[in-house]
Amino acid sequence: MKFSSKILKCELSPIRKFAPYAAAARARGIAIYPLNIGQPDIATPNEYFDAVKNFSTPVLGYAPSDGVPEYLDAVHGYYEKLGQPVDRGGVLATEGGSEALSIALECILDEGDELLVPEPFYTNYATFAALTGAEIRPIPTTPEEGFRYAERERIEPLINERTRAILITNPGNPTGSVLTRAEMRVIADIAVERGLFVISDEVYREFTYGGEAMASMLEFEHAHDNVVVIDSVSKRFSACGARVGALISRNSGLMKQALKICQARLCAATLDQVGAAALYSVGPEYFAAVREEYQRRRDTAYAGLMRIPGVVCRRPEGAFYLMAKLPIDNTDTFQQWMLEEFSDRGETVMLTPGEGFYATPGKGVNEARIAYVLEQDRLERAMELLALGIEAYNKR
Amino acid sequence: MKFSSKILKCELSPIRKFAPYAAAARARGIAIYPLNIGQPDIATPNEYFDAVKNFSTPVLGYAPSDGVPEYLDAVHGYYEKLGQPVDRGGVLATEGGSEALSIALECILDEGDELLVPEPFYTNYATFAALTGAEIRPIPTTPEEGFRYAERERIEPLINERTRAILITNPGNPTGSVLTRAEMRVIADIAVERGLFVISDEVYREFTYGGEAMASMLEFEHAHDNVVVIDSVSKRFSACGARVGALISRNSGLMKQALKICQARLCAATLDQVGAAALYSVGPEYFAAVREEYQRRRDTAYAGLMRIPGVVCRRPEGAFYLMAKLPIDNTDTFQQWMLEEFSDRGETVMLTPGEGFYATPGKGVNEARIAYVLEQDRLERAMELLALGIEAYNKR
């Protein structure tokens, strides 16, 4: 029996590729500093657990397919505060940002269609796109330019009659780069002129370190029919395991199509939506504190990288990732060596090789994503280990 | 901007079509007996809520993509007790049976492929199939034959070079019919001979009223590579809102493909998996009590139907549904009339018109699905209202 050509085009997560080598290293007594995972270590606000504990019902029934009212109210309230109110029906509760994205792609993409995505990009986009039968056409960027891509001359030549949408992550994963309002307008204008959807994954919106609040693609009125926003409580409230997200658009036609899928899968988990609704009641001081913490770590990780001769990296403005070009031949080989051969005082470090974030073969081979989700002092040591590792690796 | 041809082939849930008419009726003070929804009214075991309340962690992190260990252990344990142990890796935790099914179809079906499904079938299968680009080829059944379909002469002529799988629901939704072991063997044999997958949706397994435990498609050793089982805690433990299910197969190649999708969507909700694991600790007395309750209702609903002249229905052996041919011209028209024109002592009844369960145009127009998820006395009254309604409708 054969499998679908779509699933055969997909790959197992490259982020998990080194797990067995890490396990072996730990078995040898080596302590590993994980800079490879995007799992925040910030505590989940008690509001989530309290709401879940206080929820009581004799029968845990299906939630409405479009979402639990309290959760929808909370998301609508959040966007009102953001200055971007969305009409009822413009928000659908989803099983994390992941489901919101896959629903959006299913509604838009046919076999053979093309989806523009700046590379490097979040690796799982490749799977969600492949399952629709569409192709990802990467918008090229470079570490030297800080992975910026929002330029007409870079994007327009890639658009053809099969192009349906531009998928962006802003703030960026893995790059950490944040689009300026002017750059966002370029994307919005191109989308309107060429009749494309802009799918804007803004799950890291609250994590920007430039001082001012980040703009949302929802802000461009002329592009209201083009813009689809992917949102989630996972990173915003450090609640990845809740699997509660949202699909947001002012294109009522698109939302009507999306509702078909939401009804077919019945609903997102009832209890988690109740907890997620409560998360939105935390005050601005929560975001301020978390932002400050991540900004300190960003500065620490960036300073640590800059101390390594030959590293190419522009200081990122958002999310909790850095993408850097390292002074080594191949990050895959380097990571394996770091786990099998290297250790300093019984410690080593893990990062994510860059190649997996690119659709273009051969790109990113000497790049790496660093997730700065460790406390200050451990992060300092992790960056020191990376520096020592690179030096030893190149001398071997 | 256009939408994908796949999503345009999908429809909004026909089960929800009459919601606005029902709301209007309620606004006029009419009480409605709902026989239209598959939402059990049996209490969710406290084990779920206790486990959730006792769960404590500073950071609600991602669960493993294949599932929370306690939940996987619970499902493995359940299948061992069933006499069908499955190796590690043969069970993947999913967001309800819905996600398990859509993952299975994504792994198997390409654009233009064909999926055999006995009709009438669970309406959402159509959406999940359409999103893969494949076509459903219905296996015809009739109310007169009790919707039985597991016969070579009925199935084999429908198989061609594009046929990839047979999707069955056993016990059946909407029919309530349960395959005999001999019938299941026919399906297994055909699948093995023709190199097809058998996707067996067995979420109603515990609800059979023939006395003996239902067989699972997992029992046929020669078909181990062909069989994929869809499972869920939703109906089994009256926990539909937990959205926790499982994809189960001994075909390790298929499970490896499925894991790609599980990794891409990161994980199913952590807390709900913890609760679901606890649900599996309830004893056999729980199932016995629930089974007895549903059997009483099945008998009540069936007896009520049999009192209506001209109704065609074989007594169903499982799940909590009846599918019947009614002595009326069109169930859609009838349902709307029941909500807009009819009432007896300020009460009326809702059922689900049959047409939506068929892929073949025009089939099921005078059929209806009745979900017997009401307590005994209310169910009695609901069936009485149905009888009175049919009589008045045909006299109008």
Written account of the structure:
The structure is a homodimer of 396-residue chains. Chain A has 14 helices and twelve strands. By secondary structure, chain A is α/β, with parallel strands linked by helices. Chain A has helices spanning 5-9, 19-27, 46-54, 69-81, 96-108, 124-130, 152-155, 181-194, 233-236, 252-264, 270-279, 284-306, 331-340, 376-395; strands spanning 31-34, 91-94, 114-118, 135-139, 163-169, 197-201, 227-232, 245-249, 321-325, 347-350, 352-353, 367-371. Chain A starts with a helix and ends with a helix. In chain A, helix 3 (46-54) packs across helix 11, helix 4 packs parallel to helix 11 (270-279) and helix 12 packs parallel to helix 14. The model of chain A has no long low-confidence stretch (mean pLDDT 96). The first copy, chain A, is 39% helix and 14% strand. Chain A is globular. In chain A, helix 8 (181-194) links the parallel strand 5 and strand 6. In chain A, the strands form three sheets. A seven-stranded mixed β-sheet of chain A has the order 2-8-7-6-5-3-4, sandwiched between helices. A three-stranded antiparallel β-sheet of chain A has the order 9-12-11. Chains A and B meet through helix 1, helix 3, helix 5, helix 6 and helix 10 of A and helix 1, helix 3, helix 5, helix 6 and helix 9 of B.
List the helices and strands and how they pair.
The structure is a homodimer of 396-residue chains.
Chain A: H1 5-9, H2 19-27, E1 31-34, H3 46-54, H4 69-81, E2 91-94, H5 96-108, E3 114-118, H6 124-130, E4 135-139, H7 152-155, E5 163-169, H8 181-194, E6 197-201, E7 227-232, H9 233-236, E8 245-249, H10 252-264, H11 270-279, H12 284-306, E9 321-325, H13 331-340, E10 347-350, E11 352-353, E12 367-371, H14 376-395
Parallel strand pairs in A: 1-10, 3-4, 3-5, 5-6, 6-7
Antiparallel strand pairs in A: 2-8, 7-8, 9-12, 11-12
